[in-house]
Amino acid sequence: MARLTLDHIAKSYGSNEVLRNITLSVGDAEFVSILGPSGSGKSTIFQLIGGLYTPDAGTISLDGSVLNGSRGHISYMPQSPALFPWRTVLQNVRLSAEVAGIKPDEEQMKELIRSAGLAGYEHAYPDELSGGMKQRVSFIRSLNAPQQIICLDEPFSALDEFTRLEMQQWLLSIWETNRKSILFITHNIDEALFLSDRIIVLSDKPAAVKKELTVPFARPRTEDLLLSGPFLQLKREIYSELRG
Amino acid sequence: MSSLLKKGWRPAAVLILLLILWEGAARLFDVPSWLLPLPTQIAEEAVTGSALYAPHILSTVMLSATGYFAGISVGVFTAVSLFRVPSLQQAVYPLIILSQNIPVIVLAPLLVIWFGFGMMPKVIVITLVCFFPVTIAALDGFRQTDRDMLHYMKMIGASRRQIFWKLQWPYALPSLFSGLKIAATYSVMGAVISEWLGASKGIGVYMTMSSSSFKTDRVFVAIALIMILSLLYFGIITAAERFALRSRHKGGSPDGPAHT
Ligand SMILES: Nc1ncnc2c1ncn2[C@@H]1O[C@H](COP(=O)(O)OP(=O)(O)O)[C@@H](O)[C@H]1O
Ligand SMILES: [Mg+2]
What we know:
The complex is a heterodimer of chains A (about 240) and B (about 260). Chain A is built from 7 helices and 10 strands. Chain A has helices at about 40-50, 90-100, 105-115, 130-145, 160-175, 190-195, 230-244; strands spanning about 1-15, 15-25, 30-35, 55-60, 65, 75, 150-155, 180-185, 200, 205-215. With about 260 residues, chain B is mostly helical. Chain B is about 80% helix and about 0% strand. Chain B contains 10 helices and no strands. Chain B has a single domain, classed as MetI-like fold, CATH 1.10.3720.10. The interface of A and B includes residues 80 and 86 of A. Bound molecules: adenosine-5'-diphosphate and magnesium ion (MG). The site of adenosine-5'-diphosphate (ADP) has 11 residues of chain A, from strand 2 and helix 1. Magnesium ion (MG) binds next to helix 1 of chain A.
């Protein structure tokens, strides 16, 4: 069942037409990636879903009710961790629940922090953490929110190659046990293929959905997948799609 | 304490050197003491004449503290109002800057005409000099809020109120404290100037009485008292800042954050 649906969405900033025709959906406990070149309008899609702007045309709906321009229905993880430096790890994780007006369960938060490999860092401040650790806190913060859909905007693109691969595997392992619906933005084909159930390929600006494909690989997935024949075959296909 | 010693010895050494130069030059050229007293004479006056100025200190402390709290309250309130109501900001901001162009020396007699010789006009003078640095510093702090954090808060649907109290206010605190420290030193100056208007007690009164009777050494004692009070206030606000921001910049080794 589709939870989040975008139906024929268009958006311009003045004379700058960014999104022409975006139709996509995310199902319950599904992992969907939006893949597109830089500047194609991926973050704009999130700003529309988040209600920061209203689309010029089309409807965004969650579980059947229209969301256009209304806020607070999604959980979010930005590209930069955006942790508050005056809050400890635990207090940062609490923030998303606080904003949603929910009293968070301390034990559950500590469990999440443990599962992120950050046991012992509950009361540390962000500037004591490495880049990868900060991103893990940021993801856990988005998991700790009550909303059932998480939007991740290129969360690993600022990390080095090794840390990124580690983080992708970690993300999958957490998600296997904590299945919320995920909409994931990336400009990295490997990342989209490795993580997702489905990939939405966007065209250059003004963006429209160019291709939608289902990723057939079974879960749980391991690193070996990245060099397997079917993986490389799909990667070639997407690559030529983005080129042509 | 040891860090105070470590940082403090240089300015202290320079100060002592200057005093020695002053003492030496004044003795060498035999400057009359009603024109420029020797540092040793001033120190002697400060000790032997302490009964003369002691009652004045308390009065100035009370006045400047009252004015300071009035000033920073007005300052913080103004900053928050202007920041949260942008149209108000456009309307009022230029007036606030203009308010700083009225010379206190001109304003003070007017305030006396309107409010008499009580506490009121004096507190208004101090408020007027203290609120400005606080308002400007706090407004700057609010405006400089990290854009990524702001975007995150908007994306998760935080209300304007939540964004302000959970993000913009704590983000602006270090900046606000800079304003509070400046205001603290201004408050002593403001108090002394307002005491010149006509008061029965205060360092300002002690100073005018001393200068009109050519007790120049006492004028210098008054200057020293003003400096000491200013430093003391500055120190108190710095300590408050340390306490309020104690959780920040604590972690992280100097060579960068830890690695996984
Ligand atoms: N708030 C905004 N106002 C005006 N133009 C914007 C705004 N946000 C994004 N844009 C424009 O929209 C286009 C797409 O940006 P973005 O959605 O950030 O792309 P992506 O995330 O795919 O890199 C860019 O040309 C950018 O200049
Ligand atoms: Mg982007």
